[in-house]
Specification:
This protein is α+β, with helices and mostly antiparallel strands. The chain has helices at residues 13-38, 49-53, 55-83, 143-149, 155-163, 171-176, 244-250, and strands at residues 2-9, 85-92, 96-101, 104-109, 113-116, 127-132, 135-140, 179-182, 185-188, 202-211, 217-224, 231-238. The protein has 7 helices and 12 strands. A hairpin with a 6-residue loop joins strand 11 (217-224) and strand 12. Helix 1 (13-38) runs antiparallel to helix 3.
Length: 251
């Protein structure tokens, strides 16, 4: 059994959309209230004397306040939404996984999970949709964690990758998957992660990473724990699965 902890945003994108809509509507109402209180809404002939004498200034003021009335509430909503986060945990077993989130426990049977990535994705956060056994969970990367790391994969990205072996595969895809035995370790091409070597006599050498510019993967050597000089294989790893310290050491 392996444990993986992750951080994610507290609220879903749907909550952000509602906050932005309510905020913009409130800003426009306040803007209209300002026009009524100031008398600008009465026009260039019945409004305040200053604006009767300088009608263009009223137009300038209106067009200056409209983006503020709409943009400021949206910015406040975004800042509040992105400042809230919570933690979750995965317990990974051979035939199932246990998912702890929002003080709830979910059991995910192997082969019963669907991981979807909604399109189009936002520029500044990633969204994952988990569907399993009647449950539908929306997860968003922790924006606070993203600011702290600045580069590399967030803990939620790694957790989702760890869940990949539990995904439901179509029959045709199941036949197409390359499965092979590596010194007693079952490897499924495109699904198995480096964590499979954690409790084995071998380990992935992250000290000597071979990178290819613009490639989505890196190459690492697999060494024997008892004799690190003995290289038994090399593996290609999705760059999203690498931790920041591995990247920092290489760069």
């Amino acid at each position: 059994m392996r444990k993986t902890e992750f951080r994610c945003n507290k609220y879903s994108p749907g909550v952000l959309y509602m906050m932005v809509i309510v905020g913009v509507a409130t800003g426009l109402l306040l803007f209209y209230g300002f026009l009524v209180v100031s008398g600008i809404n009465k026009g260039p002939y019945d409004g305040p004397i200053y604006f009767q004498e300088h009608p263009r200034h009223a137009i300038y003021l209106i067009f200056f306040l409209i983006p503020i009335a709409m943009g400021l509430p949206a910015w406040i909503a975004k800042k509040y939404w992105s400042s809230k986060e919570e933690e979750g945990q995965l317990e990974l077993y051979d035939e199932y996984a246990v998912f702890y989130w929002k003080n709830k426990e979910f059991k995910i049977e192997k082969g019963e999970l669907q991981i979807k990535i909604p399109e189009p994705q936002a520029i500044w956060y990633s969204t994952y949709l988990l569907e399993f056994q009647g449950h539908r969970i929306v997860l968003v990367n922790s924006l606070k964690e993203g600011k702290e790391k600045r580069r590399g994969a967030c803990s939620l990205d790694i957790a989702i990758s760890e869940l990949s072996p539990y995904k439901k595969l179509k029959k045709r895809k199941q036949k197409d998957r390359a499965v092979f035995d590596f010194y007693g370790i079952r490897i499924v091409f495109g699904i198995t992660t480096p964590a499979v070597f954690e409790d084995s006599p071998y380990y992935v050498d992250y000290q000597n990473i071979v990178t290819i510019p613009n490639a989505p993967f890196v190459t690492c050597m697999v060494r024997e724990r008892a004799n690190p000089v003995h290289v038994v294989a090399d593996v290609q790893i999705d760059i999203k699965l690498l931790k920041d310290d591995s990247l920092e050491e290489k760069t």
